Amino acid sequence: MTRTLISVVGAVLAVASTGGIHSAQREQGNNSMHTRQIVEAYFGALQKKAGWQDALANDMVFTSYTSPVRHVSGKDAYLAATERFYSTIAGFEVRQLVVEGEHAIALTHYTIQPPDGAPSFASDVAESFRVRGGKIVSFDIYFDTAPYPK
After folding, report:
1. Which of 55, 69, 128, 134 has minimal Cβ neighbours within 10 Å of its Cβ?
2. Residues 56/73, Cβ–Cβ less than 8 Å
């Protein structure tokens, strides 16, 4: 037991002395910066209404946590399932973006203009992203469906 504890302590000290712990912290920070850049690029392209799809991984997974919960796998299936929503965005604002490692949470406010000429309405959304390999691989949303036309 004592020999095992000494080995573990020795390994930790060896990692610390070579900068391994600090390297891990820097890597976490770098991942956060990279994640922030990808998510901000997605929102920037969405604002311009062009190229936002490029931020999505081909094998992305999307989950809408409204009732009923809905899962969509794959970029093409996601684009088909959300085409109507994206076409109704009249404007939006990212109110807060929190990033840690490969995860990001955005609190957003959308102005939606229904295609049938009905009055526009607002929708506040919590959006959760996971970024790997320079692409969004997971995208989850949480919002109240009450303002949406039935």
Report:
1. 69
2. no
User: Residue 122 in contact with residue 109, Cβ under 8 Å?
Assistant: yes
| Domain presence at residue 116 | yes
Give the domain extent around 137.
2-143
Taking the C-alpha atoms of residue 66 and residue 143, their distance in angstroms, rounded to an integer, is 7
**38: three-class secondary structure by DSSP:** helix
The count of domains in the chain is 1
**For the chain, what percentages of helix, strand and coil (3-state, to nearest 5) are there?**
40, 35, 20
Q: Which amino acid is at 142?
A: Y
| Confidence (pTM) | 0.76
Give the tens place of pLDDT for each residue, 81-118.
Answer: 999 999 999 999 999 999 999 999 999 999 999 888 88
CA distance 39 to 33: 10
Q: Is the pLDDT of residue 1 over 60?
A: no
Q: Which residue from 150, 109, 108, 103 is spatially nearest to 131, judged by alpha carbons?
A: 103
Say which CATH number the domain at 79 has: 3.10.450.50
